[in-house]
Design brief:
InterPro entries: MetI-like, MetI-like_sf. Helix content is 76%, strand content 0%. It has 265 residues and is mainly α.
Length: 265
């Protein structure tokens, strides 16, 4: 039976080849051509020598880090108390429900809340200057969109900690704070790292929310790729930035996986 199922894995490899490897190879091929279709290395030279692209890359990292940090700040305590709730399955369902709604619909819903006549702006007393098309609005909406992907792995990691560990810690005289710091927090780090990956990596390439909520005031690598493909029609430069973005993502994943292995030991 094992050999029989192993033969079916070729479907998995075909999927990887067609939808992952082939697109990356196409990006690599396209990155060596300029807007006129001439073979060149100028795209890579322009990226690493142009100050604007370097600033854009740093801004993408900063934006992704702020979104991830803000999301983690809300997700960890929520996940911790969720594991103690009697109705955690129902609450977890409510956490997952927003992911079923189209991203565009959620973004446009926030336009109604953040404009000068919006409910939230009125409560915050910002009706005169508005809250839409600002960096805080973008970070808040992006964090809201990514929040379930941070909550789920953290909740699962905390919920699977054996209850006996907590009881043993209390029997040995540890306070709740000591139990959390010495038992719960270290054992839940795998979930934190998984959540960090699930939020930080997509946040590097955000472009739709930057357009709708940020109002083109926030420029990231994702918006640069969109701009080159849809506006300037410079597919070579767009492919170059896309490849660099993929390389950055792989580097972040490798770094976090090594961190997780160290914590596991």
């Amino acid at each position: 039976m094992t050999k029989k199922y192993q033969k079916l894995t070729f479907i998995y490899y075909i999927w990887i080849l067609v939808f992952i490897i082939a697109p990356i190879l196409l990006l690599l091929y396209q990155s060596f051509f300029d807007i006129y279709g001439n073979f060149t290395f100028d795209n890579y030279i322009a990226y690493f020598s142009n100050k604007n692209y370097i600033i854009m890359t740093l801004n993408s990292f900063l934006t992704a880090f702020l979104i991830t940090s803000f999301t983690l700040l809300w997700a960890y305590p929520f996940s911790y108390f969720l594991t103690k709730s009697k109705h955690k399955d129902l609450i977890l369902l409510l956490v997952i429900l927003p992911t079923w709604i189209n991203l565009v619909l959620k973004a446009y819903a926030f336009i109604g809340l953040f404009n000068k006549n919006g409910t939230i702006v009125g409560l915050l007393g910002l009706a005169s200057q508005g809250f839409l098309f600002t960096n805080p609005a973008f970070i808040l909406v992006a964090s809201y969109v990514e929040l379930p992907f941070m909550i789920l792995p953290i909740f699962r990691s905390i919920d699977t900690i054996p209850r006996e560990y907590i009881i043993a810690s209390e029997d040995l005289g540890a306070s709740k704070l000591q139990t959390f710091r010495k038992i719960i927090l270290p054992l839940s780090m795998d979930g934190v790292i998984a959540g960090f990956q699930a939020v930080f990596i997509p946040s590097l390439s955000l472009f739709l929310i930057t357009r709708i909520i940020g109002g083109n005031k926030i420029i990231t690598l994702g918006t640069a790729v969109e701009q080159h493909y849809l506006v300037t029609q410079n597919w070579g430069m767009g492919s170059t930035i896309g490849l660099i973005l993929i390389g950055i993502m792989f580097a972040v994943i490798s770094l976090l996986n090594k961190k997780g292995e160290v914590n596991g030991k």
